[in-house]
Amino acid sequence: MMSDYVVETINDGINEFNVEFHGPKESLYEGGLWKIRVELPDAYPYKSPSIGFMNKIYHPNVDELSGSVCLDVINQSWSPMFDLLNVFEVFLPQLLLYPNPSDPLNGDAASLMMKDPKQYEQKVKEYCERYAKKTDATREDSDEELSDDDVCDDQSASSDEDDDVAGHADP
Asked: Which residue windows does the record flag with biased composition (Acidic residues) (predicted)?
């Protein structure tokens, strides 16, 4: 069913998994890649799944800290006839294409979107550039706690070690 997506199960279960999601074409989020956490309730498919962004996204209807998505729309229209493809091919693309600042989970994003749309667009693009790349979406949870400085330090340390190893190799 989800063969067009990269899906990673959690604890070898079928009720919790992560899915790689690409920002929709012709949206501010185009080119971004997010890891989406999906949790299926016991009553699935009669009850809608819980979904959230694992890497940061700047959007009025997504909580910046937890990545939770306001599912009012999907809960009101959810039907057992839907499958998970509806979430990834309809719901999430529509959410990113048509943000609703009048029902925010991220008040700062909603306020900025209404007051200064150009600055809002710039901030969305900055978040995509900084947090929505392949390395961000595929990073293990334990690595997410690294700061930018830690990553730079690790990279320079490993390149120094590589130079040392190369310098000590036998001819």
From this structure: 141-164
